[in-house]
Structure formats: structure tokens, C-alpha cells
Amino acid sequence: MSMDRLIENIVKTQNPSVVGLDPKLEYVPEFIKEKKFKKYDRTLKAAAKAILEFNKCIIDEIHDICPAIKPQAAYYEMYGYEGVKTLYKTIQYAKEKGMFVMTDGKRNDIGATMEAYAAAHLGLTDVGGEKIEAFGADALTVNGYLGSDGINPLLEQCKLYDKGIFVLVKTSNKSSGELQDLKIGDKTVYATMGDMCEKWGTEVMGKYGYSGVGAVVGATYPEQLAEMRAALPHTFFLVPGYGAQGGGAEGVSKGFDKNGLGAIVNSSRGVMCAYKKEECDEHDFAKAARREVIRMKEDIISYLPRIAFPE
After folding, report:
1. Beta strand pairing status for 130-132 and 17-19?
2. Which CATH number characterizes residue 81's domain?
3. Which of 10, 60, 254, 263 shows the greatest Cβ crowding within 10 Å of its Cβ?
4. Domain range for 277
5. Domain annotation covers residue 11
6. Spatial distance between the Cα atoms of 33 and 51, rounded to a whole number of angstroms
7. 169: closest CA among 138, 195, 202, 139?
8. Is residue 211 part of a domain?
């Protein structure tokens, strides 16, 4: 299954982190922006072209040391159809470099609409009998709070095309507890959603013990992260909130299993804007991103056993 490929990339790189390519134009170095503005004026096309060059340079520097990227769709959609084109090209470029790609779209709907989302991001689109890959990510983040009606169409695509999903369970934002910490009987809403992930995952189990249904569990809540790791032995975690949102390596380590697997930790601004934090020459932005990926990796694995396949 899809998570098997992710796990294999993690073991190969000995790095359980994913780079969130969520680029605002302000993150892009001036020399790239000015080059695109000169060619395309100050247009959405220029912005999208600048972001694509920025993304490709970072991918070139990190693909050998980082297993995955996670582009957030909103940061591309804000630049219109040109931005969506850049999202597609970013996904394809990262896959060509051997990286696992999880699109952060947090899609949430039912029936035919969710079937359309599933086909767009994970499956194939029928064009007059021809089956065409629209975006081609390996996994998609989804909101499961509409229940199984919103998940089943995705599971079909996962089975057909060897893809995965990450369902929102305990998110990293401050107000998440307003709903997710409420109780249904004696169990929290987030724990109930976690149990549903385990159930959904039985249809798409992988060879390393994890299913194609992952869960988003935030680094900002380490106690809940530990709780969910114990409760969801077959559910792989996507862990946002490290770094800029306050989550630390010791806390995120609670999401991993005895083999140093079971979770992948996201950093977005920390990597994309590393050159600004370092105050280095902006032409060195991609090298700075690489240095930050290495720093993050070493920080996280210092709290983990050596990453290895299950025996």
C-alpha cells in the first residue's frame, strides 16, 4: 500500500520528516520574483512561476535526505489556475525525484462530490474512455467528520491505485479542543475518530503493519499523541505543529513505535524560510533549506530508536 512506500522512503533516508511546501510569494527570494516579474509582469502567472522555481530548487536540494513533501493546496489556489498548475507540476517533479507526495487538501464531502475529489487527487479521471491522472499525489489529507460516506469513495481509490489518506483526528490548532476534546459517552471525539481510522484501515492494510488510512495528530498535544499511538497500532500519523507552532522533538517522539516508525513530522515555514532565519545570501535559500531538514532530522531522531523495518 501507499504507506509502505512512505515507510520505505523513511527507512532509506533515516528521516521521519516531511517538508510542507506551502509557499507564499513573500517566502520566495527577491531575485526569483524579479526575474518572473520582468518576464510576466506582476501577474498571477508570474507569482506561480516564481513559486514553481522556488519549489523545484528546494526539492533538488532535499530529495536525497527527506522522504516526502506536503504541498498545501490553498497556497496554490490563491494564485488561480496558474497556481493550481504549479501544484500539479510540483507534485510531478517531486515524484520524479523519488519523493512521496501528500497533498494537504483537507477535503470533506460525500457521494459523487467526494468521488470527484478522490479521482482528482488520488485516482484517474475518465475523459471519453481515457483514464488520466489529474494531480497524482500519493496521499491526501481529509476531514472525516461527515463519517463513512465521506471516506468510502477515497478507500476505493486507495485500493485501486495504491494511495493513502490522512484523516484529521487531533489537530494542532489552539481551538481544536472546542470540538475534538468533547466526549461521546466516555470517549473523546478525537479518540472516536481515531477508532474509525483503525476500522477504515482494515480494508487497505500494508505489509509493514500500517494501513493506507493515516491520522493527523498534532505535535502541540504530546499527551494525546502518546494516547493515540497506544490506541491506534495500525494507523500511521502525520504530525503537524513542530517548530513554528511550538511542538518539540521530545513531544513528537511519542507518536512513534518501537522501530522508530509510525509517524512523519511536518515542517513548512521552518524549511522554506530557513535562509531568512540564517540571514544568509538569498541565493543560498535552497542550501539553507537542506541544512534545516538535516537539523530537524537530527533533532527528531535523537529521541527515537534507530529507524528500521519491523521484524
Report:
1. unpaired
2. 3.20.20.70
3. 263
4. 2-301
5. yes
6. 9
7. 195
8. yes
Task: Quote the number of domains for the chain.
Answer: 1
C-alpha cell, 223: 499527551
The cell numbers describing 24, all together, are: 507564499
pTM of the prediction? Answer: 0.95
Q: Please give the single-letter amino acid code of residue 223.
A: E
Dist CA 230 CA 218 (whole Å): 15
30, containing H or E segment: helix 30-40
Are β-strands 68-69 and 164-170 bridged in parallel, bridged antiparallel, or unpaired?
A: unpaired
Q: Do residues 103 and 113 make contact, with C-beta atoms less than 8 angstroms apart? A: no
Asked if 106 is an active-site residue, the reply is yes
Whether the Cβ atoms of residue 252 and residue 300 lie closer than 8 Å to each other = yes
Query: Mind giving me the DSSP string for 42-104?
Result: SSHHHHHHHHHHHHHHHHHHHTTT--EE--BTHHHHTTHHHHHHHHHHHHHHHHHTT-EEEEE
In a domain, 226, yes or no: yes
Measured CA to CA in angstroms, residue 269 lies from 20, 53, 80, 301 at distances of 8, 17, 22, 20
Does residue 51 fall inside a structural domain? yes
In the block, residue with C-alpha cell 527577491: 30
Burial (CB < 10 A; 0-12, 13-18, 19+), residue 8, is middle
Residue-wise pLDDT tens for the chain (311 aa)? 689 999 999 999 999 999 999 999 999 999 999 999 999 999 999 999 999 999 999 999 999 999 999 999 999 999 999 999 999 999 999 999 999 999 999 999 999 999 999 999 999 999 999 999 999 999 999 999 999 999 999 999 999 999 999 999 999 888 999 999 999 999 999 999 999 999 999 999 999 999 999 999 998 889 999 999 999 999 999 999 887 656 788 999 999 999 999 999 999 999 999 999 999 999 999 999 999 999 999 999 999 999 999 98
| Identity at 113, one-letter amino acid code | T
Burial class (CB in 10 A: 0-12, 13-18, 19+), 29: buried
As given in the structure block, the three cell numbers for residue 217 are 495528530
